[in-house]
Amino acid sequence: MKQAVIVCHRGACRHAPENTFASLEKAIELGADVVELDVRPSRDGVLYVLHDETLDRTTNGSGRLSDYSSAELDLLDAGSWFSPVFSGERIPRLDAFLDACRGRIGTYVEIKEGDPGEVRDMLAARGMLNNAWTFSFDQAIRAEARAKVPDLKRMLLFAHVGSVERAVAQDAHILEFDIDTLEEQRVQEARAANLVTQMFYAGDDRQVFENAVRFGVEQMNIDHVEVFREVESAVLSPVG
Questions:
Q1: pTM value > 0.85
Q2: 9 is catalytic
Q3: Residues 6+ apart with CB under 8 A from 140
Q4: Which of 70, 72, 76 is nearest to 57 (CA)?
Q5: Contacts of residue 184, Cβ cutoff 8 Å, sequence gap at least 6
Q6: Domains (range + CATH), the chain
Q7: How far is the CA of 106 from the CAs of 11, 33, 88, 109, 219, in angstroms?
Q8: Contact 49, 38 (CB under 8 A)
Q9: Pick from 187, 225, 179, 214: nearest CA to 33
């Protein structure tokens, strides 16, 4: 077995405010292979990196991001909620965030709202398509991505499709499991079907991580990178 690809969920969100340049830089410092980010458009159609529909939790703004212009969003503080150390962090525009990723780390773009074609074109313009993929919880966005941008790799959730066969039928490239759907047989079936296997887990339970390693999960979409690497190292290089 080889080491799993590490996907930093919302960047290194345990060390810096999620979905910011600071969390991106920390993810790179931790040795992550990929950064996961969330995308939404402003009122004037500029794509921003933000998880929530509203600004209240992670900025000093309030209300829906889509009700604000890009000029207004660019002035908001997206770091102080996490720690005064990060005061002045901004909500990244997607184009600038991708510029900061280019040549340094892969990208997993979760489209909360927005046009998959625009995301694809922004990645392609930077030569980043080969090390990028997308997903959305919005079924209409998933369908649009499949129809409009087949060259942008797409991830599906096992919890949505219910079987490896359905994932293959929907032209998935990556199949993600979670703590409730992870089973060794499913992982092996997915790998046999030439799907890349991934697990999302925001916790730090070492047994969960050990199971993922032993089952052969290829990519880990996680918050606790250091804990996972410790467990992985112990499994892959047992003492005695």
A1: yes
A2: yes
A3: none
A4: 76
A5: 211, 214, 215, 216
A6: 5-40+104-236 (3.20.20.190)
A7: 11, 6, 26, 10, 12
A8: yes
A9: 225
Q: How many residues does the chain have?
A: 240
- Distance CA(166)–CA(145), nearest Å, equals 17
Q: Are 78 and 20 in contact (CB under 8 A)?
A: yes
Q: Tell me the one-letter amino acid at 227.
A: V
**Identified catalytic residue from 15, 51, 160, 173:** 51
Encoding tokens for residue 142?
A: 């998933």
Is 51 noted as a catalytic residue in this protein? yes
List pLDDT tens digits, range 154-176: 999 999 999 999 999 999 999 99
The secondary structure of the chain in percent helix, strand, coil, rounded to multiples of 5, reads 40, 20, 40
Per-residue pLDDT, averaged over 132-159, amounts to 97
